[in-house]
Amino acid sequence: MNTESFEAFKAHWLAHGFDEVLERDWAPGTVLETHSHPFVAQALVTRGEMWLGVNGKTLHLRPGDTFALDRDAPHTERYGPDGATYWVARKS
């Protein structure tokens, strides 16, 4: 997968049947308690850092790291002191 640009990331995931591709920006120190989403997600961190808690483990993610979430997977999110940005593809 080409991760050099948002347009390439978007084209890749749309070609693989995903419904939408977004860029998400998070403010410094944002914390999201346990929640879930009604979609599958494939994401690439592009700025800052975040911690993703899923299945009893916490992942520390930085630019260039990827993560995936299954539909309705309970998880937590915490964003670093500079916030974070990631590109995410979603499939309902």
From TrEMBL:
Residues 26-76 form the Cupin type-2 domain. Signal peptide: none annotated. Pfam families: Cupin_2. It comes from the Bacteria. This is Cupin domain-containing protein. It comes from Hydrogenophaga defluvii.
